[in-house]
Design a protein that fits this description.
With 109 residues, the chain is mainly beta. It has no helices and 7 strands.
């Protein structure tokens, strides 16, 4: 990484015909390489996306309850919580866990 000697902005690599130069986007200064090798690399790190549903041993008593029919045992009371599982501009996912059989399911908003 190199910075512009004029404005201290980060220099970007630019191709000018057969040569490679460093270019400042702010003040438009061009710095020609003096026999230096320029290596362009890009590292992309994918974030680990993991959806965690509460385990049986966790305390469910702190969660609110609602009237929702369990798809497994048809009991009409379930714990619920919201979690952001997709992009921030999309609605959160509603999770439910049956009070009776502890079956967990989700509902997309």
């Amino acid at each position: 990484m190199q910075f512009c000697p004029k404005c201290s902005n980060l220099l970007v690599v630019d191709k000018k015909r057969k040569s490679t130069v460093l270019y400042c986007r702010k003040c438009k200064k061009v710095i020609r390489g003096k026999g230096e090798k320029v290596k362009i690399t890009e590292i992309v790190v994918e974030p680990k996306r993991e959806i965690v549903i509460m385990e049986k041993d966790e305390l469910m008593g702190d969660l609110p309850k609602t009237r929702m029919m369990c798809p497994k045992c048809e009991h009409v009371e379930a714990f619920w919580w919201m979690q952001q599982t997709r992009a921030g501009d999309e609605p959160p996912t509603m999770f439910y866990k049956c009070v009776k059989c502890r079956y967990a399911w989700r509902s997309y908003g």
